[in-house]
Amino acid sequence: MAEPKILLQTVGSVTTIVLNRPEVRNALDNEAAHALAAALKGFEADHAARVAVLTGAGGAFCAGADLKELGGGTDYFPWAGSDDGPLREPLAKPIIAAIEGHACAGGLGVALFCDIRIVDETAVFGVFSRRWGVPMSDGTTVRLPRIVGQGRALDMLLTGRAVGADEAIAIGLATRKVARGTTRGAAEKLAAEIANFPPVAMTSDRQSAYESFDRDQRSAVQREMELSLAARRREAQTGAARFAEGEGRHGKFPR
Fold first, then answer.
1. Measured between alpha carbons, how far is 29 from 26 in angstroms, rounded to an integer?
2. What is the pLDDT of residues 76-93, one digit of tens each?
3. Do the beta carbons of residue 104 and residue 67 sit within 8 Å?
4. pLDDT digits (tens, 9 = 90+) for 33-55
């Protein structure tokens, strides 16, 4: 039997999702894209899972849509614009991308869907589909300008040029750079650290950051206050009491 195109592994409260088509640099055909959507929904619905890591097998992240499938006459469905697309809207919980090798075309869109992008020296980003006349339908044209700014986003979208790991760090496209071949381990370690935080305040702050793009400053601040109420009632007083009892002093924090 062929291996699944999407692999799942759970350790504690961290779920790792692996794009598993290394023979095509983890390009997603329609079957794999639907499987990715199902994996993301499963993570979101799992109350025991707090943070996800998304990575690719075989030294590549994702080369985008499978152009051989498209060239054979099978159209691909929009990963962000369709109701069953894997990248339609942010998840309710954090997701970290562990990126080695190519994250190009739709693979760039997959990376941008994540909250944090950890790379090594082999990482390469780019709208490589520009040369084939394949448009972006994975949220890249919306998310890329919000992350790197309109000017840099247009440079990448119009030229289709490659952006390596160091430039990605410099422009804010990538979040952290680690030693070659260690992105998954680094991402899973970070995911476990984030998962240990009180979850209500963490997820409400994250949601406020995403929702602020669609609001003016006054309404965004008002929404931040609304989202903070549950954490203030359920977590803040307990956390403040722990601090008052001595935790966190002299820069020492519990794990």
1. 9
2. 788 998 999 999 999 999
3. no
4. 999 999 999 999 999 999 999 99
CA atoms within 13 A on the CB side of 86: 31
For the entire predicted model, the pTM comes to: 0.89
What are the backbone dihedrals phi and psi of residue 91, each rounded to the nearest 5 degrees, phi first? -70, 170
